[in-house]
Amino acid sequence: MKLVVVGSVALDSVETPSGRHDDILGGSATYFSVYAGFFTPVNLVAVVGKDFPEEHLQFLKSRKINLDGLTVADGKTFRWSGKYLKGNLNEAITLDTQLNVFATFKPVIPKTFLDADLLFLANIDPEIQLNVLSQMQNVKFCACDTMNLWIQIKKEQLTKLIQKVDLLFLNDGEARQLSGEHNIVKAARGIQSMGAKRICIKRGEYGALLFQDSDVFHVPAYSLEEIEDPTGAGDTFAGGFMGTLARIGDLTPQTFRQALVQGSVMASFNVERFSLDRLKTLQESEILERFAAFKRMTQF
Ligand code: AMP
After folding, report:
1. For atom 15 of ligand 1, which residue has the closest CA?
2. How many domains does the chain have?
């Protein structure tokens, strides 16, 4: 199945207990694309500014990501700066967000992307997500992600969006914020009652839960001793998930379960190093081995 993603391509400045790095490659659509790219070709829709380094463009091309939908606009690239405190790597503290070229971005989907079966609306302004969804002609399964900023300032548009998609990805803090419920099951049920068909709540080191009707599926996180940089864990999770749907080519409950485990596998690699560094050495054999480790870990 053919996969399209829209979301941010960014320059991030990130501080974690392991160190600090400025202006490194980031963005929700970037993390998603390079990890989904292990399973399927990815068609990217996004915008960067003229200041976006050529080496990053070459890197994305080298991962076989189709950049026909990437606009290089006058102005500066989206920038995000955040930090994680020791003892709480599950929660990013946003220090600064500069939308820059995203503030006026009106995506035009290339004709060759319009027939895609799978669409991932990675974290970005829900108005841009809605715009992209409305242009697509053949989507069989659409998932979206979001964050606290959009829940806070664009709740109405976000609510409209979650009623249209097949799956909403959120982390536990965002699920609580959106629903007003602290208990995670009540939060999921609250979001279902807002019109969401399926919800995947990511809980960092505690794994993820998929809620559909009255069903719940729980996938653990791979237990790691060292986490360098949790940035992009949610996007790589979604990349593993959607990439697996594309590769298997069906939308059965069994495939959803397998895709969730693959999401957890991919996220566990990404957090081992800063930015997308872990991916640069990641081998297919390591992915297969970790997937098998998940099976061993959860069988009884
Ligand atoms: P994650 O850690 O998976 O939630 O996503 C991290 C990525 O999200 C970073 O690389 C940021 O560039 C990007 N990001 C942060 N804030 C925003 C925002 N408001 N809109 C779009 N992308 C964002």
Report:
1. 80
2. 1
